[in-house]
Amino acid sequence: MTERSLKSISPDGVSGMIFAMEGMKNAVVLLNGPMGCRFYHSTTSRFLSVRPLMTLPAEKDGARTPVDYNYLNDFFFFQDRVPCTYLDGYDYVYGTRDKVRRALDFIQANIAFDFLAIVNSPGAALIGDNLLELAREKLGESRVVMLESPGYSTSFQEGYSEAALALLQQTGPALWAGRKKPGDGKKRVNLLGLSVWQRYMEGDLQELERLFALCGIQVNAALCAGCSLEQLRAMPDADLNVVLYAETGLAAAEYMAECWNIPYYVCQPPPIGFSATERMFAGICAILHADGAPLRAESERARALAWFWLDQIHQTYGRPKGVKYYVEGLPSRAAAFTAFLTDYLGMEPAGPDEAELVFGDANLIAGLKLKNKTFCGIETDRPGMGYVDLLPKTHLGIEGALFLIEQVLNGLMSKL
Fold first, then answer.
1. Architecture of domain 10-155
2. Confidence (pTM)
3. Per the CB 3.0–4.6 Å rule, which of 175, 300, 360, 393 could disulfide with 233?
4. How confident is residue 67, by pLDDT bands cut at 50, 70 and 90?
5. Cis (ω within 30 of 0) for the bond into 122?
6. Which fold is adopted by the domain 296-413?
7. Tens-place pLDDT, residues 327-340
C-alpha cells in the first residue's frame, strides 16, 4: 500500500461536517446524497460513545423504548446512524425536497431526538433546494441546521469548523434571544474544537472538566462534543471560550466574540503533556482570576510518578530516550504530541517507515502493517483498530500525560 493510497482514505470536509453534528447529544444527521456517501460515516458512527441509544418517540407515560434497528429499513437501511436520502438521477434533475420531506416524516415518527442536521453532499449542494426552510417548518427554528458541502477537496478540519460555525449562526438567534448572563458569580468556560473523531474524546472531556473544577471553573458547554440543545442554549453564559484546537474551534470563537463579546483563549499548544497543560491553565486562570494552585500541585505529583517509572525503564533498557516515532493527525494536535514526546521523553521524530512508535488512526496503522513494518501503533484518532474501551481514557491534561507515557512504555516493552 503506497503513501498515496493511505491518504486517499483520509476523512474529508463532508466527514468533518457529519462528525461535528454527530457530536451533538440526541442528534440525527441526515445526509442528503447518494448511498455511496453514507456507508463509511454510518459504519464509523456506530463505534462512537458520546450519545445514548436511540429511542422511539415517548408514549403517553413518557417512557422511552430503545429502537429496534431491524425495522429501520427506510433511509437508515438497518444501520443506526446517518440516515440518507439515496439520491438518484431523477432527484438531481427534479430536486430533492420530496425525498427530504419523506425522510423527515420517517425520522420524526420513529426516532426521539432533540436536534437534526441536514448535510448536503457535494452534488446535492449544487441543486439549490431550500431545505432549511422545509426543515424549520417541521421542526422549528432552533432544532435544525442546514450544511452545504459544494467542495470535494476540503479537509476534515475545514468541514468541522464550517459546521460548528453554521450551528451557532443558524440556531443562535432563536436560542439566545433575550438571554442574560446568570449573576451567580460562577466562572464558566465553553470548550471549542473537541471532536468525536478524536480517539478518546469522552475521556478528554471528563479530564478537562475535572481540571477546571480544581481551579474553581465550570465547563459550561463543549460545542459538538456531547453538547445538548440546552447546553447550546446556555453558551452565551460563559465568561471565556477556550479554543483547544484552532483549526476546528477558532471560527466559532470569533463569531461568539463578535455577537456576545465573549473573549477567547487559544491553546498553543493544546494540553497534551504536563507543560502544555500547566501553561494552558495558568493562562486561563490569569484571565478569569481563578486559583490554579491545586492543579499545579496535582501536576507535580503526576510528574513524580512519571519520573519513577521512566527512570526504572531507562536504567534497565535505555528507553524511551532516542526512540524514533511518527505522529499524524490534526496539525495542532500533532505538534503538541511531538513537543511532549521530544522534549519530555527525549524521543526522536522520524518518518513512518523508520518509526518504532506510530501515532495516528487505524488507516495509517493498518496500512503500515500491510507493508510488513515492525512498530507499535498507538491510536489517536478515528477510525480505530477495534479495541473496545469500557472505561474512558484521555490524551489530554494530567491523566492524559500519564496514560500517554504508559502507552509509550508498554508499546516499547512489547517489542523487546
1. 3-Layer(aba) Sandwich (3.40)
2. 0.93
3. 175
4. confident
5. no
6. Rossmann fold (3.40.50)
7. 999 999 999 999 99
